[in-house]
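Entry for the shared binder. Reason: the reviewer on the internal report wants the predicted structure included alongside the sequence.
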Amino acid sequence: MKPIRSLATAAALVALLSAGAAHAESRGFLETLHRNTTLTNTVPENGDQNPYAVVVAPVSAGTIKQGDVLVSNFNNAANLQGVGTTIVNYHPGTKQMTLFAQIPHELKGCPGGVGLGTAMTMLKTGWVIIGSTPSNDGTTRTKGAGCLIVLDAQGKVVSTIANDDVNDPWGNMAVVDDGDHATLFVSMAGFGVGAPDGNPPPVFKQATVLRIELAIPQGQPPVVKSQTVVASGFGARADKGVFLIGPTGLALSADRKSLYVTDALSNRITEVDNPMTRDTSAGVGRTVTSGGLLHRPIAMATAPNGHLLVTNALNGQVVEIDPKAGQQIYARWIDTDQAQSPPGSGDLFGIAMTPQGDGFYYVEDDVNTLMLAK
């Protein structure tokens, strides 16, 4: 009987090793990262703070070099929300930060003024587009509808995009850029949201995702050719701590057949089908995953393996999700600041992959820093 038991033990050991090897081969992207590094303080000379958007330059143009990291500031020097007016530029080659743009708070064509949020992109033609979610007193009590601001590669404002479908461009954009034309997806979180009264303030299920089709004539700024609300009915509300809460992260699948949205107040990721071609709203779309490792999901990026990387607003973690399987793979602490409870709560906003795809940039807004996870 002893040889039989030995064979059984050996077979079990082989099965265990095989399972371990299979697990090793299927590691998620976050498990390949080793350290979080502070790159720079993001406060420019005028004292603006609270970094939000993070965008990696796809090309060299004007004062920007390919691979530079643009970061917007949402607060002013007095730490009032919705009145930050600066975009800074971190240069990985020199490890220096410079001011890319400083926009007047009062800007013609931008209802309510300028408060630079998380909605930002740089196009292959060198134009930078950023959303304004403005306030005059740091609260939603004086919130304006805002606009999208187009800047040239020198940081100069050249035009604005404002209309009835634009109301507080809030989340990081998903972008398809084909050079002479581009498609932007932007979440609009301001509809219905007013003063931060109540505990908590009321939720308005009026937030949308707007698809904007741009034509980009050679040497000329982008112009809007058409726009379509492709998703609607997401919850949004005022918040004294973070100004407002609404759908924030947007990411397209590689085949462009799915648009993923972080629905913060419902603590879920949803999927909108056929986002490039649909001519009606999909509502809030289909739930991909909810709860679990998600704790008010906000910014989102796509890893090289096609998984989604989603930052949490209520702790310092980023969560990896397989959107096709609807599976939450792994969570990694990228902000362990014990000053918040849980650690890192309320610190994470923008996120962007490195050009090489071997890590990602993010910001810690409590200490005004640009970080690199790699």
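Summary line for the report: The chain is about 5% helix and 45% strand.
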